Automatic annotation (TrEMBL):
Presence of the UniProt keyword Coiled coil in the record: no
Transmembrane in keyword set: yes
Name of this chain's protein: TonB-dependent receptor
Similarity-based family: Belongs to the TonB-dependent receptor family.
Domain TonB-dependent receptor-like beta-barrel: 356-805
Ranges for domain TonB-dependent receptor plug: 56-169
UniProt keyword terms in alphabetical order: Cell outer membrane, Membrane, Receptor, Signal, TonB box, Transmembrane, Transmembrane beta strand, Transport
Location in or out of the cell: Cell outer membrane
Membrane topology: Multi-pass membrane protein
Protein's organism: Shewanella litoralis
Signal peptide residues on this chain, from the entry's feature table: 1-35
Length: 842
């Protein structure tokens, strides 16, 4: 992935030019404008600080990804470009997430969880979005067509932005101050002629006396890729068969009940790439009302229609056996035939037998989402007095997300059991079920949900006073934010009649009042300190105070040292506080021996008394731009993040064992275990007992030069993971389908050569060898190669084309993979892709 790390020299000029033509580029207090009659560069605000400044030198490491780099590599969604960064880990949901994603796309900085990375749009919070009561932003709501650049702040920033900025901040800056018309057409397909994507977008802008208005629209569509359509995919066999099984026995062609020897291949129905269709409208405006008053605003609306597909629903029920001990007289039951008895099928101690069936007669489970996300933000900024250098700002942001979701071909477990009792011959014959039976047991699961956000903020910033080394600058402000969310499951699911887990509705809200301040102090000509302090008061858990201290030291004209120490927090989300109870059949060992089924029902609950997660973060690094090598910049940063009081669930099995072995009143009470091992109300609630501790080193090289009559750009990003621990478990350099990948080494390299009318790019992306958490075996390293080219036909027309995964690398095999025997969120499961596009400007 071609990216640039923000350094003292290499980036300063280009971003100052951008800032000179933008308004409210990155945050609350930003009011840098280019006056129609003055053409002057004023102070700007950068991601990670609210203090406006004339340069880009801060103590925090920031990576900038330009729109040109995004297009060069053919990215059509924000999650794809972010997950390609070396600073990402884990397994963030995205286009390759088929099971349980609800079509959302997220970012997972440092692999600490998407809920611990704050996403901003033009420096202000983006509303959480997805299927309802969501804890993070759905990146699908932000079209690539509207992006000017993406800034990734890679240290804790709660003292500046508040909750969620534990691992860092992703600030997406939209296109603005545009004049004219631009049309972009982009598309791609795989070497297997599937998984096509297409995008069409338009941008129109015009200037007024002291202002600019920019409007945009985008449409994109992504087609699916079936897992079994890739030659490297091994069949994924399941014990749930279309013909059904009793106990562990299945019926053969001769009508005999024998041991099961085959399985159902679910890869023929499941996606590697999920289909997605998006419609977006966006606009930005800036209008100078008088000499020192500026009105800015931006609007975004996105509609997403997405689908995922899984194998037909597996039905797993316990059936009463007629005449068996424990079955009440008159209860519905099945009669075991002579062939069943001869095959060894018998009732258990409770008088029941397990019946499993893959309901292929109903068809695959098709998950669909129709989501709408709307956001509007407006700000008024001005100067208190032109002689004081004091600027004020007042802003309001509103965001709303609503979603309708469904699951076609869901199965009503209650109806299924009654149908088996009433139609035993039909269910146990091994032949397809009749249409009437299928209609009786199947239904479409319909749910709806949403999120809403209101934010009002005000602030003051400017220069306080002069000292011998320069000027002490400051920013102070206050903010009020209201968040609400809800999710309403289908009534069949709420009643517990579905084969899916029982779930109750979620509904809740909270508000927070915040005050914050920052000060930048030049101690000497070379040493500058940055200090931030924030106080938040939540209507739920109470108060949180965070601070940040950063230092920069310009050792020489070529070398700068930087470091940051900060505290952070994450407030519990709506779903964590007010989430409806959800049933889950977990594989557990009952030490009392009461449970007859290895899958024991556990009630997962939220807790409105949850406290905020807390964190400490540290970064220390060097920025080196040698004067003897023009165009070369190097950065090296050490980072560490520690999270305490993390919101998580306890280990149920450990609780069962402790309650049984030690008669532990605390364990029995915590998990609602009754007398003599009564598990009828077994409960696992969210609580503040989790922890994370991760550290590593980031290295970046950027080199721009001329040679052989060509302009060259070389970039290399490396992240070396030193440690990742969660809840006391060490996941460093491990991969697993449940939590993703924490590779010790990730590296991105790019080189570009070109002239005024053309350029050619080569990129490679390396994910190092890891250990398989399930087996301990080595999981092979992968090196992806991408090639792209751009040709500027005229000043109006630009053509681009490229190939992703040029060598068609196969994903590494993971024993406990999340899908298809691998982890699609980590490895490329699509294969070689060809893409191209055309841009026309008027």
């Amino acid at each position: 992935m071609s990216s640039v790390t923000l350094t003292a020299k290499a980036i300063r000029r280009s971003l100052l030019v951008v800032a000179a033509t933008s308004v409210a580029t990155t945050g609350l207090f930003s009011s840098a404008v280019i006056a129609a009659d003055e053409q002057k560069v004023e102070r700007i605000e950068v991601t990670g600080s609210r203090i406006q400044r004339q340069d880009m030198e801060t103590a925090s490491p920031v990576t900038v990804i330009s729109s040109e780099a995004i297009r060069a590599e053919g990215f059509t969604s924000v999650d794809q470009l972010l997950q390609a960064q070396t600073s990402m880990a884990g397994a963030a949901l995205g286009s390759s997430s088929n099971n349980g994603s609800d079509g959302v796309a997220q970012v997972d900085l440092r692999g600490m969880g998407s809920q611990r990375t704050l996403v901003l749009l033009n420096g202000r919070r983006m509303v959480n979005s997805g299927s309802g009561a969501d804890s993070s932003v759905d990146l699908n709501s932000i079209p690539v067509a509207m992006i000017s650049r993406v800034e990734i702040l890679k240290d804790g920033a709660s003292a500046v932005y508040g909750s969620d900025a534990i691992a860092g901040v992703v600030n997406i800056i939209t296109k603005k101050d545009f004049e004219g018309f631009q049309l972009d057409l982009n598309g791609s397909t795989t070497s297997e002629s599937d998984g096509e994507t297409g995008e069409m977008s338009g941008l129109y802008g015009f200037n007024t006396d002291g202002g600019n208005y920019t409007f945009g629209a985008a449409y994109s569509k992504r087609e699916s890729v079936i897992q079994s359509d890739r030659s490297w995919t091994e069949p994924g066999y399941s014990s749930f068969l279309p013909t059904g099984s009793l106990g562990s026995k299945v019926q053969n062609d001769a009508g005999e009940w024998v041991a099961r020897s085959t399985g159902y291949d679910y890869t023929t129905s499941s996606y590697y790439q999920t289909p997605n269709e998006r419609y977006s409208l966006f606009a930005n405006m800036v209008q100078e009302l008088d000499n020192d008053l500026v009105l800015t605003g931006d609007v975004l609306y996105t509609k997403r229609k997405s689908d995922q597909q899984l194998a037909p629903q597996p039905a797993d029920v316990m059936l009463n056996v007629c005449g068996a001990d424990g079955v009440a007289a008159g209860a519905s039951c099945i009669t075991l035939s002579d062939a069943m008895v001869a095959g060894g099928i018998a009732a258990d101690d409770t008088g029941r037998v397990n019946y499993r069936r893959r309901t292929t007669d109903a068809g695959p489970r098709i998950y669909s989402q129709d989501t709408d996300t709307f956001r509007i933000s407006a700000a008024l900024a001005g100067e208190l007095d032109i002689n004081t250098g004091m600027n004020w700002d007042l802003a309001y942001t509103y965001g709303k997300n609503k979603a309708d979701s469904s699951v076609d071909n869901s199965i009503n477990a209650t109806n299924l059991k009654e149908s088996v009792y009433a139609n035993q011959d039909a269910w146990f014959s091994g032949v397809p079920l009749t249409g009437d039976i299928v209609n009786d047991i199947s239904f479409t699961d319909n749910a709806n949900g949403g999120n809403e956000q209101h934010t009002v903020s005000a602030g003051l910033n400017g220069d306080l006073f002069d000292v011998s080394a320069g000027t002490v600058a400051f920013a102070i402000g206050a903010e009020y934010r209201y968040e609400s969310g809800y999710y309403n499951p289908d009534p069949v699911t709420v009643a517990g009649d579905s084969t899916a887990a029982q779930q109750d509705a979620t509904d809740g809200d909270y508000n927070v009042i915040s005050v914050f301040q920052e000060v930048s102090v030049p101690f000497t000509d070379k040493l500058t300190g940055e200090f931030a302090l924030r106080y938040d008061d939540y209507s739920t858990f109470g108060k949180a105070s965070t601070w940040k201290v950063g230092l920069t030291y310009e050792a020489t004209d070529d070398l700068m040292l930087r470091g940051v120490a900060a505290t952070g927090f994450r407030a519990p989300s709506i779903s964590e506080l007010f989430g409806g109870d959800t049933g889950s059949y977990d594989y557990l060992d009952d030490p009392w021996g009461n449970a007859q089924d290895p899958q024991i029902l556990v009630r997962y609950t939220s807790d409105d008394d949850l406290k905020a997660e807390e964190s400490d973060s540290y970064t220390a690094g060097v920025v080196y731009s040698p004067s003897y090598v023009d165009g070369l910049s190097l950065t090296l940063d050490y980072w560490r993040f520690k999270v305490t009081n993390a919101i998580t669930r306890l280990d149920v099995q450990a609780g069962l064992d402790e309650c049984f072995a030690n008669a532990s009143a605390a364990a029995c009470e915590t998990f609602n275990i009754g007398a003599n091992g009564d598990l009828s109300n077994l409960t696992n609630s969210l609580t503040n007992v989790g922890s994370q501790d991760t550290s590593g080193v980031d290295f970046n090289l950027a080199y721009n030069f001329e040679a052989l009559s060509l302009d060259w750009k070389i970039s290399n990003d490396t992240t070396y993971l030193l440690n990742f621990e969660q809840e006391g478990n060490d996941y460093t350099n491990y991969i697993d389908g449940n939590f993703g990948a924490y590779a010790e080494v990730r590296n991105n390299f790019s080189i570009q050569a070109g002239q005024d009318s053309w350029n050619v790019n080569y990129f490679n992306r390396y994910i190092g060898e890891m250990d398989d958490l399930g087996t301990g075996d080595k999981v092979d390293a992968v090196l992806y190669h991408n090639i792209a080219g751009t040709y500027f036909v005229t000043d109006m027309i630009t053509l681009s084309a490229g190939v992703k995964n040029f060598t068609d690398e196969e994903p590494s095999t993971v024993s406990n993979g999340s899908d298809g025997g691998t982890v699609p969120e980590v490895y490329d499961t699509i294969g070689r892709q060809y893409y191209g596009g055309v841009t026309v400007k008027f």
